[in-house]
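B., you asked whether I could sanity-check this one before it goes into the benchmark set. Here's the sequence:
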Amino acid sequence: MLDCTHISWLAWAKPMKLKHEAELTKEAIAAGVKYAEGRGAVVFEATDSQADKILYIYRLLVHDKLMQALPETEVSQQSMRHKLAIWYSKSLPKGHKLLQ
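And here's what the prediction gave me:
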C-alpha cells in the first residue's frame, strides 16, 4: 500500500506529454545550436549529425544548469530529445501554437 508521500512522488515523476514534440525538438536543436555557438562552446559543422548535436546540446545545458540531468542509465537519444523539447517549450509564450 502506498502512503501519501509515494502518491505525490508518482504524480511528479510522470513524464511530461508534449503534443507537438517533434516540432519542439526541431526548434530546440536550432535554439541549442545558437546558444552553444553564441556561448563560444562549439562550432557545429554541416556534417555533424543530429544525434551528435542533441548529445552536445543536452550535456552543455546540463553543465550550465539550464536543465536537470537524467540519470546516466536513462540517457538515450529519445530521452535527450524529450528533455530538449521540454526545455524549449518553457521558453515559449503562453498560448503558443506548439504548446496547444
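One thing to flag: Confidence is low (pLDDT under 50) at residues 5-11. Otherwise nothing jumped out at me.
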